[in-house]
Amino acid sequence: MAVLVTGVAGFIGFHVARTLLARGEEVVGIDNLNDYYSVALKESRLAELRPHNRFSFHKLDFSDDVTLMETLRDAGIDRIVHLGAQPGVRYSIEHPMAYAKANLVGHLSMLELARHTPGLKHFVYASSSSVYGGNAKQPFAETDPVEHPVSLYAATKRADELMSVSYAHLYGFPQTGLRFFTVYGPSGRPDMAVWLFTEALFQNKPIKLFDDGRLLRDFTYVDDIVAGVLAVLDGPPNGERPHRLYNIGNNKPEPVTKLLEIIEQAAGRKASVISEPMQPGDVPATYADIDAIRRDHGFEPTTPLEVGVPRFVDWYRRWRGL
Questions:
Q1: Bridge partners, residue 59, by sequence
Q2: CA–CA separation, 71 and 226 (whole Å)
Q3: How far apart are alpha carbons 154 and 91 in whole angstroms?
Q4: What is the C-alpha separation between 224 and 246, in angstroms, rounded?
Q5: 63 SS3 class
Q6: Local structure of residue 34 (DSSP, 8 states)
Q7: Among the ranges 131-135, 268-272, 273-277, 288-292, which has the highest mean pLDDT value?
């Protein structure tokens, strides 16, 4: 039987699929390869996965429920890792309909696929730390109220969680939502701070620090994220409680200024900095309480910023041929 990974050409989806293949799983990947960021980067990830004889890929948009069902009806899937989505807080300000299609209609399409998949063992899906909005209490815990999102992106992710709760109640198949906290690492997303800072540094362009650099983020290395995703995938909730939510983060908020300092050290360059005000939809800090996922699945992040960021910078040099 196979694991379906949506967004398989995306950052986290690629790393999850690669690790599943490495442990001997059969993986079915889907992605629509949209141009939100470099399609060439997405294709390069797929190029690493395609040689595996246990990997198959379908280019499709999972918000198209008819095509989704027709394509995957006989794919032999028994687990789903739904990571595909329209990401980005700031992009949602200017392109709201992209989020309605991918994150709302798309999530519902995936839930429909899941409930019509005989013998489905587990449906794991990506949520986001953004659902906590501007919560003042730190660290963010899964029991905290999340009814005041400050971006459309956050609102769609919270809606996904609620849809999953209803489907778990109605149809009983096990589901787990994961609230990711600022994931970074090799082959990362070009719209994230780690990439943006590194690229600006190598291009001798100024780097924008929002809120005068006072922002705090719980930066989480992708290998730690993948370990958590697979641990959760392998431990579905029981029948009495078919839906669960977990934070998955590094459990250590770091100043964005520290991120920049480590990038400067790894690149051997000094940045020119421009201070900018806080952006609409942004929050001053994120900080994951990971007691629940630690207790239930043994999750323990092991990669500090000082180790993970130089790995990204090394990868970026190779990617750009520097």
A1: 31
A2: 26
A3: 12
A4: 14
A5: coil
A6: -
A7: 288-292
Q: What is the pLDDT of residues 163-189, one digit of tens each?
A: 999 999 999 999 999 999 999 999 999
The C-alpha atoms of residue 128 and residue 106 are separated, in whole angstroms, by 16
* CB crowding 223-241: b at 16 or more within 10 Å, else e: bbbbbbbbbbbeebbeeee
3-state secondary structure (DSSP) of residue 26: strand
The per-residue pLDDT for range 241-265, each reduced to its tens digit, is 899 999 999 999 999 999 999 999 9
Distances (CA, A) of 196 to 35, 100, 180, 193: 17, 26, 20, 5
Mean pLDDT is lowest, of 71-75, 133-137, 217-221, for: 133-137
How far apart are alpha carbons 249 and 64 in whole angstroms?
31
Residues marked active site are found at 153
What SS3 class is residue 83?
coil
Residue 237 and residue 174 in contact, taking contact as beta carbons nearer than 8 Å: yes
pLDDT in tens, 4-29: 999 999 999 999 999 999 999 999 99
Nearest CA to 160 out of 135, 183, 130 is that of 130
* Residue 176 β-bridge partners: 124, 244
Residues 6+ apart with CB under 8 A from 185: 11, 15, 221, 222, 223, 308, 311, 312
Contact 177, 160 (CB under 8 A): yes
Q: Which two tokens stand for residue 308?
A: 């993970």
Domains assigned to the chain: 2-184+220-250+287-302 (3.40.50.720)
ω into 139 cis (within 30 of 0): yes
SS (H, E, C) 282-314: CCCECCECCHHHHHHHCCCCCCCHHHHHHHHHH
281: confidence class by pLDDT, cuts 50, 70, 90: low
Nearest-angstrom CA–CA distance, 208 and 274: 5
Q: What is the pLDDT of residue 208?
A: 86
Residues 209 and 277 sit within 8 Å (Cβ to Cβ) = no
